[in-house]
Each structure stands twice: as C-alpha cells, then as structure tokens.
Specification:
Blueprint: E1 3-7, H1 33-42, E2 47-51, H2 57-69, E3 73-78, H3 88-95, E4 100-103, H4 122-131, E5 134-137, H5 144-153, E6 158-161, H6 169-173, H7 180-192, E7 196-199, H8 212-226, E8 231-233, H9 246-256, H10 262-276, H11 279-283
Parallel strand pairs: 1-2, 2-3, 3-4, 4-5, 5-6, 6-7, 7-8
Helix pairs in contact: 3-4, 5-7, 7-8
Length: about 280
C-alpha cells in the first residue's frame, strides 16, 4: 500500500484545539475526509494515518469515528493524559479498536524539556509496551537527547520520531548553523535506538523564499541515517498548507528520494508505515 503516514482532520468548533491560531485562515477551519479525498485519489494513496491535534481523549474518539466511516483511514494515533495514570483504562479500551495504533503526547508544546522523563509519566510508556501500541515522539531539536534517553530506557517501545524532529531550516536559511547539532542527534537516534522517523513537515520548518535545496541536506541526512526501511513519508496536511499544498510536498518528497532504489521508495512511501503501525491488521477488519 502507498501510505500517507501523517495527516490531520479537525473541526475547530469542537473547542479543544488550544494551539490553533484563530486568525489563521489556513488552519482555523474545518477539514473533513471529503477535503482530503481528492488528494488521496490524485496521488494514488491507498491508506492514511490520522494523528491527534488536540490534547483530549474526546478528539481521539472523534478520529476513530472518522476512521470507522472512511475506509482509506487505516490508522489513528490518539492522545491520553500521561500525567494521569487513571487513564490507563482509556488506553486499554482504545487498544481494542482495530484502527487504533498508539498515542502522541504534545511534547513540543510543553515548556519543560524534561517532562517526558518525569517519574509521573513513566507508567504510560510501560502501558504502551504492554498493549503493543506505538509512541509518536513530537518535539524539536532541543528534545533529541531526552528522546534518546527515553528510547534507550524502553527498547521494546515502538517509537517513531515525528517530522524529522523539526530541524530549524529557517535558521539555516538565515545563516545560522541549524544542521550540525540536529544531525548529530538524529544520527544517535538512528544508531542507538530501533525507532523509525517520519519524513514530513520539513517545508513548514522553512521560511519564506525556501526552495528544495534548502531542504535537501536535512532530508538526505535522515535517509542516510535511518535507511528506507525506517523512514515513512507523511503529508502533515493541512499544516503543510502553510508552505505548500499536498501535491507540491508529495512531488518534492519524490524528488528528494529520487536517488534511492525503487524498492527503497516503496518502503518510504508505504512499507515502513504499514509495518510500523500494523496497518495490514486494520485493513482486514
């Protein structure tokens, strides 16, 4: 299957998208399956993984409802409150749904860079392992050392590092070195953990006037470090629309992977995500 391993659908009137800027016309509008379907069809996408965008169990239920009604949504990455061990029952309940893959705490928005290592949230990682659920690691380059610690502490936890860990390409464009520290951290994650990485959201970490060559060294490093069988492409739609439409990012990703073999491209654009998220299981239900 050709898979879009990371996109969102939302309805701002639900009221729990606290991060969403109300004055941004691109983001602060509803996005439903019918809005994404033309892109899915145009680029031959067989299935998708929808990822949480609100810090609420209610949004996870909302996404599972969309998945139940939309055959091409093969997987759902939701949310539970890691600070409340009483939410273990939500994980157990959600895990029974054939399209529920795992969870993503919104670590990038938490001021404490060490939050993921707090004693009070460790129960959640252990529960993910017990229930065979995945963990989407969402953060910035400043989080790289702690994600390395976390993945090393729980080697049996299935981890995917979202959005190439958001290298600050805009800083590189401005003449600052945003590559060296990020690249070193990415290499350590690739070499010292079994995690996968999402080849997504690079365009939204660039500034106005960006071009493919601004993104290429970051994309190349991720591909070289992790290898195709640990890299999965995602659109990050509709967030990607801040810098590029669905088809533009799809075509750029194709160009940035043109140096690898056709077999490796099938991994990047579907095989890795299907295997990591166990999507073949949901497709049979």
């Amino acid at each position: 299957m050709k898979i879009d391993a990371h996109h969102h659908l939302w309805q701002p009137k639900r009221g729990d998208y606290d991060w969403m800027p109300k004055d941004n016309a691109t983001l602060s509008r509803a996005y439903a399956p019918a809005d994404l379907a033309p892109h899915i069809d145009a680029f031959g996408i067989d299935g998708t993984v929808i990822v949480q965008a609100a810090a609420s169990v209610e949004e996870t239920e909302y996404m599972l409802g969309l998945a139940d009604a939309t055959p091409w949504i093969k997987g759902v990455v939701g949310w539970v409150d890691f600070e409340d061990e009483g939410q273990r029952h939500h994980l157990k309940r959600l895990a029974a749904h054939p399209k529920f893959c795992g969870v993503r705490p919104m670590i990038q928005d938490i001021p404490d860079v060490n939050w993921m290592l707090r004693d009070g949230v460790q129960w959640a990682y252990r529960a993910l392992i017990e229930l065979d659920l995945s963990f989407d690691a969402l953060g910035f380059p400043r989080h790289l050392p702690n994600f390395l610690t976390l993945a090393s502490r729980y080697p049996d936890m299935r981890v995917v590092y979202d959005h190439c860990m958001k290298p600050q390409i805009r800083d590189q464009q401005a003449g600052q070195d945003a590559f060296t520290v990020w690249a070193d951290g990415i290499s350590k994650l690739a070499d010292q953990t079994a995690g996968c990485v999402k080849f997504s959201a690079l365009v939204t970490e660039a500034d106005a006037g960006w071009g493919v060559e601004d993104i290429r060294p970051f994309a190349r490093h991720v591909l070289d470090a992790f290898g195709a069988d640990r890299v999965m492409w995602g659109s990050d739609w509709p967030v990607c629309r801040l810098q590029a439409e669905y088809g533009e990012w799809h075509d750029i990703a194709q160009e940035l992977t043109s140096h690898v073999s056709e077999l490796e491209r099938t991994q990047i654009f579907g095989g890795t995500a299907t295997r990591f998220y166990r999507l073949a299981r949901s497709a049979t239900n």
